[in-house]
């Protein structure tokens, strides 16, 4: 197993690109090699199996889409009120739209985990950890809001879908 951390990271990021562009079925070692611009066979020297590559892509996606600690620290200087929660959601939307490839790859990971039980446990664990960390952050920061209010779905749809 090859041990160049920089090359491994580049291969994982290339895997993110392939996953976003081609979907899980297109994620092959050869496609990752091509996206990374390395000789054929390089990815297979770094990952024992495709599932290992997928697990590392999952980890990388959660890193790529995580809040910037400096941005978060700046936001958290504001009063702990509805405006702050709104600013945090705007930050989330900025991260998702700013890394469209990462977000598309994350959606592909969700689909692949739903199809493949051997990935489901690992993926569920990472999603659960993110969710628990987010909820703990919300509680410990003293942010307002609990639960999903009645009629939220209807308000969202009414906001984003115009009347005919």
What is the topology?
Blueprint: H1 5-22, H2 29-36, H3 42-46, H4 50-64, H5 69-75, H6 82-98, H7 100-115, H8 117-140, H9 152-160
Helix pairs in contact: 1-2, 1-4, 1-7, 4-7, 4-8, 7-8
Unreliable parts: none
Radius of gyration equals 19 Å
Total count of helical runs of at least 4 residues: 9
Largest sheet: none
Q: Helices and strands, in N-to-C order?
A: HHHHHHHHH
Overall description:
The mean pLDDT is 91. 73% of the residues lie in helices and 0% in strands. It starts with a helix and ends with a helix. It has 164 residues and is mainly alpha-helical. The longest helix is centred in the C-terminal third of the chain and has 24 residues, at 117-140. It has helices at 5-22, 29-36, 42-46, 50-64, 69-75, 82-98, 100-115, 117-140, 152-160. It has 9 helices and no strands. Helix 1 crosses helix 2 (29-36), helix 1 packs across helix 4 (50-64) and helix 1 (5-22) crosses helix 7 (100-115).
